[in-house]
Amino acid sequence: MTATLTRGAERLHAAFARAQAEGRAAFIPFMTAGYPTAEAFPAVADALLSQADILEVGLPYSDPLGDGPTIQRASEQALAGGTSTRRTLELVGALRQRHDQPIVVMTYVNPIYAVGPREFMRLAQEAGVDGLILPDLPPDQDIEIADLAAEHGLAVTFLIAPTSTPERVRLVAEACTGFLYAVSVTGVTGAREGAALGEVPAMLALARQHARVPIAVGFGVKDRQTAHQVAQVADGVVVGSAFINAIAGGQDVAALAADIAAGCRRD
């Protein structure tokens, strides 16, 4: 994989650096593209971007093995409403016209291959995507995707978990060009009861021995309190299911985003 620092990587690193300079972890909200509908998604994304340092947009997929029931249901609803891979990138392109913050797309590899890797990267670059989060792509098994991403100015992010071996942590940390995504718990996405930290500090200590990029933590972060816990040890805080649950419950997403963003401040 090329070691060139891409346009997207530069923008992502700058966002983390700005948050660091302000004494906080970067706030990275997640929302499934096309949820709750393709028509309503832009307003939801605007609300999140009013507080976000970086926005993570989930590309709806029919078999999201790493996602819990909340995001799975959101993907199913978005797909039923006609949000395809190309439509996702169109929605991101529209957001890019209104917002300057970096936008990353979380996608499984099958949608990339369905469109064609080079065509997917071309469309992502045209839409103004800054990076890709690739939850089911081991970085040592398909360097074509990462190389094509870099060729089109996109950063790549891979995931580690508490169950990752030291060798796997090293491999993944060295392969990331955008940021490293550390999963706080073993299992799938979703808001959980209890503390968010668990084995996170030890996992991050190991990852920092090898990572040349910022490290964000997600899975299980659901409110201001859990975001604050994670912000003390991570460079970024990712929150997703809490916002999807808020939409489903008719809650004010903008208010929740502001509250969680406030929790990202360090002591």
UniProtKB/TrEMBL annotation:
It catalyses: (1S,2R)-1-C-(indol-3-yl)glycerol 3-phosphate + L-serine = D-glyceraldehyde 3-phosphate + L-tryptophan + H2O. The keyword Heme does not apply. InterPro entries: Aldolase_TIM, RibuloseP-bd_barrel, Trp_synthase_alpha_AS, Trp_synthase_suA. It comes from Deinococcus carri. SUPFAM superfamilies: Ribulose-phoshate binding barrel (SSF51366). Tetramer of two alpha and two beta chains. Keywords: Amino-acid biosynthesis, Aromatic amino acid biosynthesis, Lyase, Tryptophan biosynthesis. This is Tryptophan synthase alpha chain. Belongs to the TrpA family. It comes from the Bacteria. The active site is at 56 (proton acceptor), 67 (proton acceptor). The keyword Lyase applies. The alpha subunit is responsible for the aldol cleavage of indoleglycerol phosphate to indole and glyceraldehyde 3-phosphate. Pathway: Amino-acid biosynthesis; L-tryptophan biosynthesis; L-tryptophan from chorismate: step 5/5. PANTHER family: TRYPTOPHAN SYNTHASE ALPHA CHAIN, CHLOROPLASTIC, TRYPTOPHAN SYNTHASE, ALPHA CHAIN. Its EC number is 4.2.1.20.
